[in-house]
Amino acid sequence: MGLNLKELVIREKTTLEAFSNKVIAIDAYNAIYQFLASIRGPDGLQLTDAEGRITSHLSGLLYRNVNFLSLGIKPVYVFDGKPPSLKTAEIERRKQIKKDATVKYEKAVAEGNMEDARKFAQQTTSMKDGMVKDSKEFLTYFGIPYIEAPSEGEATAAHLTNTGQAYASASQDYDSILCGAKRLVRNFTSSGRRKIPNRNTYIDVLPEIIETQKVLDSIEMTREELIDVGILIGTDFNPNGFERIGPKTAMKLIKQHSRLEDIPQIQEQLEEIDFQQIREIFLNPEVADVDEIVFNDVDHEGVMKYLKERSFSEDRIQSTLNRLKKALEKKSQNLDQWF
DNA sequence: CAGAAGCA
DNA sequence: TGCTTCTGG
């Protein structure tokens, strides 16, 4: 899952307000997956409507987008297309993890250990086609645009930051840096305290911004070199990385030799992966070219009707929409004062 | 996850 | 009022 570049990059804490009036390309899969994983009851089960269809993603999208729009942030969601064929092994690996977690979940439930049950249930999270369809339809009622990427969503999101159509790409995965995003935002949520699982402690989660050029300058590397570092550590396209090589060693080796082909001690292992193609996925990914990103007004009635059909309480939807309306009115007032 | 409710 | 816990669907 993603790439362990955490210790190599400079991250600057910021706030959601800092993104007011900016277009942010959101890695839709990444965001929705997190809603599906975390919006659950104490038993670990997701929220569902009267027909038993999962609604956790809709709940997450509702509140988060209301917050974005209230602050004048312009989100554009980028959905994944067909994964690169090199990702097959990683996809299988994730499937297996979910299978194992399902067994552990059932065991924990049988033993009445609800804390574990919840933890393992989260690990079984998977995204179904219906959820993608739901999310796109729901975004449309919000007037929020979405883009269907031909392949990895992150790559198209990164592309938009380079065409100037988006200020930053929002994802929890560091891959966006290798994809060439100008800026990456992590924790792109209303900041707040988050509970550490099982522990009785909380941490403050603030949005953090990563400027790719600053990262490259600070480690004195080119993007090509950083991609090779990534491949040494392990990417979605070679999930195991290289034996006995973590971030520190990877950096040292690339600093010394510049590229994978020139590191003597890894040549045998290097033959086992298609590193040229992995580089290509990061350097020249298949992306969607977008003419214009259009934001529409929120269709309050549409949002209400859609969520009522999915068993959301009318009162809750109404008060959430009122909050949005109030915030937008206040915004236009502030704007009027200028003229 | 994020808002609502509960509580000092 | 601010912090913790509960609930949503």
What's the SSE blueprint?
Blueprint: E1 12-13, E2 23-27, H1 28-38, H2 56-70, E3 74-79, H3 88-110, H4 114-123, H5 129-141, E4 146-148, H6 153-163, E5 168-170, H7 175-178, E6 183-186, E7 192-195, E8 202-205, E9 208-211, H8 212-219, H9 223-233, H10 247-257, H11 267-270, H12 275-283, H13 300-309, H14 314-336
Parallel strand pairs: 2-3, 2-5, 3-4, 5-6
Antiparallel strand pairs: 1-9, 6-9, 7-8
The protein binds a DNA duplex (8 and 9 nucleotides) through helix 1, helix 2, strand 7 and helix 14.
Task: Give a short summary of the structure.
The protein has 339 residues and is an alpha/beta fold.
For the structure shown, list the relevant keywords:
14 helices, DNA-binding, globular, seven-stranded mixed beta sheet, 339 residues, two-stranded antiparallel sheet, DNA polymerase, domain 1
Major β-sheet profile: 7 strands, mixed
Question: How many separate domains make up the residues?
Answer: 2
Biggest sheet strand line-up? 1-9-6-5-2-3-4
Coarse structural class: alpha/beta
| CATH-defined topology of the largest domain | Rossmann fold
Tell me the total number of β-strands. 9
The helix content, as a percent range, equals 40-55%
End-to-end Cα distance: 49 Å
Task: Report the total helices.
Answer: 14
Our estimate of the beta-strand percent is 5-15%
Give the helices and strands as they follow along the chain.
Answer: EEHHEHHHEHEHEEEEHHHHHHH
Fourth-level CATH superfamily of the largest domain: 5'-nuclease
User: Taking all residues together, what is the mean pLDDT?
Assistant: 95
At CATH level 2, the architecture of the largest domain is 3-Layer(aba) Sandwich
Low-confidence stretches: none
Gross morphology? globular
CATH top level class name of the largest domain: Alpha Beta
Q: Work out the radius of gyration.
A: 21 Å
